[in-house]
Amino acid sequence: MERTLSLIKPDGVARNLIGEVIKRFETAGIKIVAMKKLHLSRKQAEGFYAVHKERPFFNSLMEFMTSGPIVAMVLEGEDVIAHNRKLMGATNFKEAEEGTIRRDYATDIEKNVVHGSDAPETAAFEISYFFNSMEIVG
Ligand code: UDP
User: Fold this and answer.
1) If you measure from the C-alpha of residue 20 to the centroid of ligand 1, how many angstroms do you get, rounded to a whole number?
2) Which value, to the nearest 10 degrees, does the dihedral of the CA atoms of residues 39, 55, 51, 131 take?
3) pLDDT reported for residue 129
4) Where are the domains of the chain?
5) 61 lines ligand 1 (CB under 6 A)
6) Which residues pair with 115 in a beta bridge?
7) What distance in angstroms lies between residue 137's CA and the mean position of ligand 1's atoms?
8) What ipTM was estimated for this complex?
9) Superfamily for 2-130?
10) Is 49 left (phi over 0), alpha (psi -120 to 50) or beta?
11) Which cofactor does it need (predicted)?
12) 64-88 pLDDT, tens digit each
């Protein structure tokens, strides 16, 4: 069993897509083992996306990610890091496969509804960024 971090970004929360996203995870057999709603500060968003701080889109991404509340979840399942990335679809929704969350709901390369960890090391960092061990109930 593997774990990954999923975020429903401010656009997804603002557009009432929380249930839609969760439904896709549950239908796919993925367990939600932790969940919370929060509104990131600039510092918290910068810490989370520190790997992107030199990228040209960083400032805009920070404005977006702090623009409203998000939902953070820990997902659990077999190969759930890759499974979640498959359900999400490509970063750019125009390149995302049909039936993926981003293809169906993203409006922009930035406003793409969901985040998901991309590797075991990033999953470990990202899960611990939002949750302590007592908040994860497997
Ligand atoms: N992003 C953006 N412009 C880009 C690439 C990425 O605004 O050209 C944003 C987008 O919201 C994306 C996030 O930055 O989800 C993180 O980028 P990454 O390449 O890690 O994509 P992801 O892992 O989210 O698919």
Assistant:
1) 21
2) 10
3) 98
4) 2-130
5) yes
6) 7
7) 29
8) 0.98
9) Nucleoside diphosphate kinase-like domain (3.30.70.141)
10) alpha
11) Mg(2+)
12) 999 999 999 999 999 999 999 999 9
